[in-house]
Predict the 3D structure of the following.
Amino acid sequence: MKKSIASAPGKLILFGEHAVVYKKPAISIAVDIRAKITITPSKSKTIFACDDLNIKSVMDFEKKEFHMLSGQEGIVEYIFEVLKLKHDYLNPINIDLALDLPIGAGLGSSAAITVALIAALDNYYNKELNLDEIAKTAHNVELNVQGSASPLDTATSAYGGLIFLDENSKVTKLSASFGDIIIGYASQRGNTRQMVAKVKKLKEHYPVLINSLLDAIGNITLQAKEIFDKEKLTKNDFQVIADLLNINQGLLDAIGVNTLELSNMIYTSRKTGAIGSKLTGAGGGGSIIALCPGKRKEVLKELQITENALEANFSKNGVIIHN
Ligand code: MEV
């Protein structure tokens, strides 16, 4: 039986969230926590299933809609949108998703699922894998489903590694590798739309102040990029990146997207050995990242006493075909 399997990594924003909405640069990193899609032929209808999330859905291409048999429809919108662009409609398929990434934690789960499905379909139809094309299609899918989206998540999932988005939304893969990271994720999910609106409002009330904070975040990103342009980072480089993470966190707090739960995780991680930590993504809930060379186990253990936390390895690879 024909089978196609592809997986794509999640992402963390290291520098520049929120400022990126106002055309400042940003840097994100791929982490080896993946969304894995398996495609096999189906006898009757095209069916999407994810056992991890208890989701099952049937696609009805004639009526241009999908029907939920179980679970929430959130991620199925992305699946259906990819199928509208990429599926040949003639031969029904089973699409199975295995997901290691927590949903709604700011770790790019929708981008990873979208990228993995596009690659799995291209492979299923024996098409050459073209990363630029996959990244572009995945970004279009996110735009169609969400209304707005920066290309950062989908590019990071497709290419892997460290990704720099410049002020004209041009994507570049940086050469450096990155170190050991702990991710802590709050029980409260972040709501990106609400958080972006909150910053917008504050900016309208205090334009001079907030603009200077957003400029400062942009400058942090540019300083980090200079370091990540190197092939290999020294201990001192990691210390500079850690300092920049901590400064960026202070600015995110100042623009109003921090929460007590995130703060607790950030200070717990620093107390236990993280040299740099900040919230990542939209804030208001969601996740933090902690850079903790040599202290990963300790930080993980301490965070897990009160919160959800997991280890994340840097993923040099983006989307991968497994067969
Ligand atoms: C959310 O992950 C990152 C934000 O900058 C929003 C965006 O870039 O679309 C807050």
Observations:
- DSSP finds nine helices and 13 strands in the chain.
- Residues 164 and 225 are 7 Å apart (CA to CA).
- The pocket of (R)-mevalonate is lined by residues 13, 17-18, 20-21, 106, 150, 192, 195-196, 281-282 (CB under 6 Å).
